[in-house]
Design goal:
Elements: E1 4-9, H1 12-21, E2 25-28, H2 41-50, E3 55-59, H3 71-87, E4 91-94, H4 105-115, E5 119-122, H5 132-142, E6 146-149, H6 160-170, E7 175-178, H7 187-194, E8 198-201, E9 204-208, E10 230-234, H8 236-241
Parallel strand pairs: 1-2, 1-8, 2-3, 3-4, 4-5, 5-6, 6-7
Antiparallel strand pairs: 9-10
Helix pairs in contact: 1-2, 3-4
C-alpha cells in the first residue's frame, strides 16, 4: 500500500504546493509558531479555490497553549466547526483534555457530534495526555477517524516505540498517523519500524520577501523566529520526496 501523506499547510499557497507534490491531504493551520490555530474563513476558502482535488482538514484550536478549554473557547470552537462544515471541507482536527490530563470525553463528544459528517482527527493533544493507551480506546469509542501523534516524544523518530505499540493496539480500528519532524530522510525508517501507512509532515522551505525597502529593527512578534523578511511555505519538491 502506498504511503498517504498529509501536509501541515500554513497558507493557501502551501495547500497548492502540497497538492502539486502529491500529498493526499492537508491540515490547514494558522499560528504555526503556536503549534497551529484555526485558520480564517478567507484562508480556507482561498485554499479550496486554488486546489483541485486535495482533501482539506482544518484545525479547530482557538489559541496556543494547553488543551483545557473554557466556555468562551468552546463556543468559539463550535462556531469554527460550523464554518468548516458550511465551507464543505473534508475534515476537522481538534483535541481536548481534562485538567488531570485525560481525554475530555464529554467535550470531545459534543465537538464530534457538531462536526459530523466531516472526518475527525484528534491532534497532538494526545501527546500530552496522561495515559495514551487508555486515551486511544476512548478515541476509538468516540468514533475519531485518526490520531496524530509523535509518540509522546519531541519528534516521531524518538516516538517510534510508542507509535508501534499504538498501531498494534488500534488493530485497524482507528488510524494512527505519525507526525512531527518527519522528512524525506527518516520517513522510511518510521514506516518500517511502526507499520504506519499515513504520515503528517510540514516540508517547508524559506521564501524570501519581495520587499526592496527593509527595516530589520522592528519585529512584528514577541519572539520572531526569523527575519520579518522571510516566511516559510510548503515545498512541492520536498513533498514529492516523501512519496519516493
Amino acid at each position: 500500500m502506498a504511503r498517504i501523506i498529509e501536509i501541515c499547510a500554513n497558507s493557501a499557497l502551501s495547500c497548492v504546493e502540497a497538492e502539486a507534490g502529491g500529498a493526499a491531504r492537508v491540515e490547514l493551520c494558522a499560528g504555526i509558531p503556536e503549534g497551529g490555530t484555526t485558520p480564517s474563513y478567507g484562508m480556507i476558502r482561498t485554499a479550496q479555490m486554488l486546489t483541485q482535488h486535495i482533501d482539506i482538514n482544518v484545525i479547530i484550536r482557538p489559541r496556543g497553549g494547553d488543551f483545557l478549554y473554557n466556555n468562551a473557547e468552546i463556543t468559539t470552537m463550535l462556531h469554527d466547526i460550523e464554518m468548516a462544515k458550511k465551507l464543505g471541507v473534508h475534515g476537522v482536527v481538534f483535541g481536548c483534555l481534562t485538567e488531570d490530563g485525560s481525554i475530555d470525553v464529554g467535550l470531545m463528544t459534543t465537538l464530534i457530534k457538531a462536526a459530523r459528517p466531516l472526518s475527525v482527527t484528534c491532534h497532538r493533544a494526545f501527546d500530552v495526555c496522561r495515559n495514551p493507551f487508555e486515551a486511544l480506546e476512548q478515541l476509538i469509542l468516540l468514533g475519531c477517524d485518526r490520531v496524530l501523534t509523535s509518540g509522546q516524544q519531541p519528534d516521531a523518530t524518538a516516538g517510534i516505540p510508542l507509535i508501534e505499540k499504538l498501531i498494534r493496539q488500534a488493530n485497524e480500528r482507528i488510524i494512527i498517523m505519525p507526525g512531527c519532524g518527519i522528512n524525506e530522510h527518516n520517513i522510511a525508517r518510521i514506516e518500517a519500524e511502526t507499520g504506519a501507512r499515513e504520515f503528517h509532515a510540514s516540508m517547508r522551505s524559506v521564501v524570501k520577501s519581495r520587499m526592496v525597502y527593509r527595516n530589520d529593527n522592528v519585529p512584528m512578534g514577541a519572539a520572531a523566529p526569523t527575519s520579518e523578511f522571510e516566511t516559510v511555505q510548503t515545498d512541492r519538491h520536498r513533498v514529492a520526496a516523501l512519496l519516493v
